Amino acid sequence: MTNAPGFNTLAVHAGAQPDPTTGARATPIYQTTSFVFDDADHAASLFGLQSFGNIYTRITNPTQAVLEERVAALEGGMAALAVASGHAAQLIAFHTLMSPGDNFIAARRLYGGSINQFGQAFKSFDWQVRWADTAAPESFEAEIDGRTKAIFIESLANPGGTFVDIEAIAEIAHRNGLPLIVDNTMATPYLVRPIEHGADIVVHSLTKFMGGHGNSMGGILVDGGTFDWSASGKYPALSDPRPDYNGMVLHTTFGNIAFAIAARVLGLRDLGPAISPFNAFMLLTGIETLPLRMQRHCDNALVVARYLAGHDKVAWVNYAGLESDPNHALQQRYAPRGAGAVFTFGLKGGYAAGKAFVEGVSMLSHLANIGDTRSLVIHPASTTHSQLNDEQLVSAGAGPEVVRLSIGIEDAADIVADLEQSLAKV
Ligand SMILES: *Cc1c(COP(=O)(O)O)cnc(C)c1O
User: Fold this and answer.
1) How far are the Cα atoms of 92, 161, 168, 213 from residue 164, in angstroms, in the given order?
2) Contact 406, 372 (CB under 8 A)
3) Which atom of ligand 1 is nearest to the CA of 206?
4) 81-126 pLDDT per residue, tens
5) Which atom of ligand 1 is found nearest the CA of 219?
6) Which of 34, 75, 201, 219 could form a disulfide with 181, with the two C-beta atoms 3.0–4.6 Å apart?
7) List-wise, which residues carry N6-(pyridoxal phosphate)lysine (predicted)?
């Protein structure tokens, strides 16, 4: 081939080849904990990071390796590290960059679980999160000080489906000598490739649209290979001699894959959230159809958003794909193929109407997930956000009247019909 393979081709082939031993065409599930060494010198060189190879499935596994190569290719990154969940990916990303007493700046609009992880769990590592507003990129700069180590945003933010000006925030990060970490779970690289817009590290919950079938947990970190980790003492895991690896300095030895290596041999090795080979296989299989599924998700979501916007019981619809939406220009710039499949709308009848609506659906599933082939619905005020008061509900984008949809790949007419019959009962 003369040209680099296209996105659809990479989704099917990147990282994979027929199994050299058996000829198996699908990537085998290497369901083993450990791997036999050729001889004692081979074992020593693997342990000393002198050569690449498999030792133990907590650190590397051939099924996991294909998943890593595939997602790195789809994101346009240099290397990747697959782990047990999206939250594990975030934990390992920050563990690689942060020391006790350090801080990072994160967008206020994030997946609720990430708000908890950053605001609560990270406190016990003495890592501080400072919140900023993606609609005002300068609010990130205002929070930076001498102990700031990174900026974290979602490319397409939960729960409202808001596109973010990645380039403006990347510019602020780089001007201040910081890496930009982008959670690309909701957009997937089919819609947005954050590294092309200045991200240095991309993280994913593979549990959602990437795997796409609502059957397997997984997460991944992608190293863009773009960031200079050499500043002495700022990122010790990358720039200081490692006593556990004979004084090796990871950024000089591994160059533009140093972050991915550090995340694996210091983060995953010691914290331990490895992905199972079976889940890596399931996620890999899902990713083969990512471009087809994402386009259908987006096309269906636009049909549903237009339908809801014209319904007399609906107060508002928050979908960037609608031309009238204030976020539409950013969507056109960053994700011209579509606006994603997760969005919110408000019912004129408030809390009671929201609750009645989710009880009235029949094909749609009432549950707390996104990015399944099936269409999903939730009323945050009576479920995920039920511990908040009305004022807190509104600032979280989960007011009493708000319903969140994750539109699946069924026939759009059937999704609309189910919404229609449920709205009739509200
Ligand atoms: C689900 C989700 C996560 C967390 O991923 P898990 O696989 O559930 O650990 C992180 N970010 C976003 C945007 C998510 O939707």
Assistant:
1) 24, 10, 9, 26
2) yes
3) 7
4) 999 999 999 999 999 999 999 999 999 988 888 999 999 999 999 9
5) 7
6) 201
7) 208
- Greatest Cα pair distance in the chain: 74
CA of 225 to the centre of ligand 1 (A): 23
Q: Give yes or no for a cis peptide into 159 (omega within 30° of 0).
A: yes
Residues of each domain in the chain carrying CATH 3.40.640.10: 8-286
Binding pocket residue ranges, ligand 1, CB within 6 Å: 85-87, 111, 113-114, 154, 158, 183, 185-186, 205, 207-208, 217, 219, 370
Q: Atom 2 of ligand 1 has which residue's CA nearest to it?
A: 205
Cα 195–338–289 angle (5° rounding)? 75
CA 368 / ligand 1 centre spacing (Å): 11
Ligand 1 centre to CA of 49 (Å) is 31
Homologous superfamily of domain range 290-425:
Aspartate Aminotransferase, domain 1 (3.90.1150.10)
Per the confidence metrics, is the pTM higher than 0.90? yes
